[in-house]
Design a protein that fits this description.
By secondary structure, this protein is of the alpha/beta class. The protein has two domains: about 140 residues, Aspartate Aminotransferase, domain 1 (Alpha-Beta Complex); about 260 residues, Type I PLP-dependent aspartate aminotransferase-like (Major domain) (Aspartate Aminotransferase, domain 2). Helix content is about 40%, strand content about 15%. It has 15 helices and 15 strands.
Length: about 425
């Protein structure tokens, strides 16, 4: 995709940066690492402070006003999150009880592996993941497979970085009990056809788990359209606080799953010898939750919606296309992934020929350009692609980026090339 003049002009303008205190305070910083964590708008920072100043109390158990208000803040956030991902009933009412708060997407996926996995997997069964998974969606399954005598099966990519229907039919068979796949790769930025994968998983009687850490911040996600049973993502990649993760699941399935952590708040009653679990979602939320973080994430979702999520998604699509196009135009840079920039959802991996990614990132940092360098917690993918040095550079955009950020990256890469090649 080659952007026309009007499209270039639209991403040259930036009405968003002033909403983000760090970016507004430090215009010298060119932040291109939003796939790792996003910047936070003032609305989120203000909400977190407001919680502690105006409603600071332990939620759920207290009967006094502050505690009730804190409880309402958490439950309001649940409903908002449910609406945001399309977890609503036939009348459009949000199903907040299907939203579980964790610390991050990694904990959400570990929760699923150790509860659903330990419940349904037996020797000879199979868990299917893709080769492009983040370690957070590989290691938990490696562990539970070792505990249950289950085989871990990998979906491979074709030459166009896609999981084909033929690969699905070959790998997701009658022994598959769980299929767990990322919607968007954190390295390649490619989007997987989750509805097709879900359909195949359910056809074979398997549960479908989706890692949405890289998709929910950039795409309009509707769990009904995905056809999945469980979805994990994090607040910190979409403007919310660090330390807040989300696990959404179908109510009937969550009811069947045993608790992950035990202790306070997740029980209905306790005797000297036994306990009765609280209903979902409290069953999975042992101990005091980060109520301020949940409340701030609620404000973050409100901020995104106030800007028009469809407009933000369209802007990011143009930014990704321009980023891919600009990198591909450098004859000393190898883009890893599809040539079509529109297929990169937010993230583009690349290498400067003959230069280690760590050196590239260090030199860029000298001019205020922030990118990621390393294996991106996706070592099996980089090994599968036979990437030199087992690591890549990765530039990732969010709607608060602009054309100038990408141009500064390109200028910085030219400097890198000059440093190492005179």
């Amino acid at each position: 995709m080659s952007l026309d003049a009007s499209q270039l002009a639209s991403i040259a303008e930036n009405p968003y940066k002033d909403d983000f205190p760090l970016l507004a305070k430090h215009p010298e910083i060119c932040f291109l690492d939003s796939a790792a964590t996003s910047q936070r708008p003032a609305a989120v920072l203000d909400a977190q402070r407001r919680f502690y100043e105006e409603m600071n109390a332990n939620p759920l158990r207290g009967l006094y006003g502050l505690s009730v208000e804190a409880t309402q803040a958490i439950e309001g956030a649940r409903d908002h999150i449910a609406r945001f991902i399309g977890a609503v009933d036939d009348e459009g009412r949000p199903q907040g009880s299907e939203v579980i708060f964790t610390r991050n997407a990694s904990e959400s996926l570990n929760l699923v592996a150790q509860t659903l996995g330990r419940s349904v997997l037996h020797e000879g069964d199979e868990v299917v993941v893709s080769i492009m998974e983040h370690h957070s969606n590989i290691i938990p399954w490696q562990q539970v497979c070792a505990q249950t005598g289950t085989r871990l099966v990998y979906l491979r990519l074709d030459d166009d970085f896609r999981i084909t229907q033929e690969e699905l039919e070959a790998k997701v068979g009658p022994r598959a009990k769980i299929v767990s796949v990322t919607q968007v790769s954190n390295v390649l930025g490619v989007r997987n056809d989750i509805p097709a994968i879900s359909a195949r998983a359910h056809q074979m009687g398997a549960h479908m788990v989706v890692d949405g850490a890289q998709s929910v911040p950039h795409l309009k996600v509707d769990v009904r359209e995905l056809g999945c049973d469980l979805l994990a993502f994090s607040a910190h990649k979409m403007g919310g606080p660090m330390g807040i993760g989300i696990l959404w699941g179908k109510a009937a399935l969550l009811d069947q799953m045993p608790p992950f952590l035990t202790g306070g708040e997740m029980i209905d009653s306790v005797s000297e010898t036994d306990a009765v679990w609280a209903p979902v979602p409290q069953k999975f939320e042992a101990g005091t939750q980060d109520a301020a973080g949940s409340y701030a994430f609620d404000a973050g979702l409100g901020y995104l919606e106030s800007k028009g999520f469809a407009a933000l998604e369209a802007r990011e699509r143009l930014l990704s296309a321009y980023l891919t196009e600009s990198l591909a135009a450098l004859d000393f840079v190898d883009v890893i992934g599809p040539e079509d920039g529109c297929r990169h959802v937010g993230a583009v991996a690349f290498n400067v020929r003959g230069v280690h990614p760590h050196d590239v990132a260090s030199i860029l940092d000298g001019s205020g350009v922030c990118i990621r360098a390393g294996h991106h917690c996706a070592q099996p993918l980089l090994s599968y692609l036979d990437v030199a040095m087992g690591s890549t550079c990765r530039a990732s955009v969010a709607f608060y980026n602009d054309k100038q950020d990408i141009d500064r990256l390109v200028d910085g890469l030219k400097t890198v090339w000059q440093v190492f090649n005179g």
